[in-house]
Design brief:
alpha/beta; Rossmann fold; 2 domains; 8-stranded mixed beta sheet; 5-stranded parallel beta sheet
Length: 400
């Protein structure tokens, strides 16, 4: 399951050129098995037909509140009652003004008024001058005061040729906001520090020592923690992943750089999760120039990198929760238990790096959670699902 599977989303579409992007959002929601029902304003149907959204959702599209075109009796009540969340994207200046003033002159506005207690997300999209106009800014502030979730637009080139704020965000950021809206905020108030990815230890200007870590697990942990209300700092080695929306990301290269960044931030963190695959050793000497094959030494002298997790375990402050990872190809639980005891941890996540679906770079993972009460194996899951299960366990530890 994903965080969107089975969720009932009432999707409001208003009259903006950004409707084409909203269609892509709806398609993405349906791919993740969300149950999407679309309400279009009359103006929205001038940009894209109802048939487009009916084809994408396999559900009737609702436009009119009265008359022969009404699909459902008392639609403004039943649609709002059945929804887990209302998402309005794009939200035009006109729609924002009507919602801010409590108007009920079409099906979308009336459904929003009838959705008492349901989260309503508003994604403004319009010309930058319209967006920055004091009237629009006042209306958006009024929506926030009423409890609506207003997601600021992106800035950039607009369809009209102007440049500035007013672009509907890309789906990745919108998805994170939607998931945060739908999930329990059981990490609210927590300051979470996460490490991810590999480190690189320089041999010469052309070569380095590293490992196969992709950073996917650590990034999934950062995303899911942010959704659940935590303030998240992610310290990551070199990866090919986009920074998670809403997360403070610190990019480093070497183990020593990661050590410095983590130790500097550790005192402010209430939960630390060390999922990075940090190099245990570095070359004793990094060459200034590329080493030629003919002059390469027969052996490579190495020296130990600082053990970040052991340092955190020695100096943790009262109430701080410390989680480590054990990437193993055999004896997973035994190695995780050893690390738990020797490094003064609360939890170790052991994962099998030898499996085709669980090794470095895979999109799935099968981990065992080892704490002082024993081992808790999880099934094969996507890395986001595994991350959520890890946070579920961490939340129970925090509550003890």
């Amino acid at each position: 399951m994903t965080g969107l599977q089975g969720k009932k989303i009432l999707f409001g579409v208003t009259g903006s050129i950004a409707v084409f992007k909203a269609a892509a959002w709806v398609h993405a929601l349906v791919k993740e098995e969300a149950l999407v029902t679309v309400i279009m304003t009359r103006a929205a149907t001038r940009f894209v037909s109802e048939l487009t959204f009916e084809a994408l959702t396999a559900n009737p599209v609702h436009v009119e509140m009265f008359g022969h075109a009404v699909r459902t009796p008392m639609a403004h009540i039943s649609l709002a009652r059945d929804a887990d969340c209302i998402c309005i994207a794009p939200a035009t200046a006109n729609t924002i003004a009507r919602l801010a003033n409590g108007m009920a002159d079409d099906l979308l506005a009336t459904s929003v008024l009838a959705a008492s207690g349901k989260p309503v997300m508003v994604f403004p999209a319009m010309n930058c001058n319209m967006y920055m106009h004091p009237a629009t800014r006042d209306n958006l502030q009024r929506l926030r005061e009423l409890g609506y979730i207003v997601v600021e637009p992106d800035a950039g080139a607009l369809a009209c040729g102007d440049e500035g704020p007013g672009r509907l965000p890309e789906w990745d950021r919108a998805r994170e906001q939607l998931l945060a809206c739908l999930c329990q905020q059981d990490l609210a108030g927590q300051q979470v520090l996460i490490t991810a990815g590999p480190t690189r230890e320089v041999l010469d200007p052309a070569r380095f020592l590293s490992n196969r870590s992709s950073g996917k697990m650590g990034f999934a942990l950062a995303r899911t923690a942010r959704r659940r209300g935590a303030k998240v700092v992610l310290v990551t080695g070199p990866v090919s992943l986009e920074d998670p929306p809403g997360v403070e990301v610190v990019h480093v290269t070497s183990a020593r750089e990661m050590y410095e960044e983590v130790i500097q931030r550790s005192s402010q963190a209430s939960i630390i999760v060390k999922s990075a695959a940090v190099a245990d050793f570095r070359p004793a000497q990094a060459e200034l120039h590329k080493v030629k094959k003919r002059s390469a030494p027969d052996s490579l002298a190495l020296e130990a990198n600082p053990d970040i997790l052991a340092e955190l375990g020695r100096n943790r402050h009262p109430g701080q929760l410390l989680v480590g990872f054990a990437a193993e190809s055999r004896d997973h639980q035994e190695e995780a238990g050893r690390k738990l005891r020797e490094k003064n941890l609360d939890l170790v996540v052991a994962n099998d790096i030898s499996g085709e679906n669980t090794g470095f770079g895979a999109d799935t993972n099968q981990v065992t959670l080892v704490d002082h009460q024993g081992a808790h194996p999880l099934p094969l899951l996507s890395k986001e699902q595994a991350a959520d299960r890890i946070w579920d366990h961490i939340v129970t530890l925090v509550a003890k």
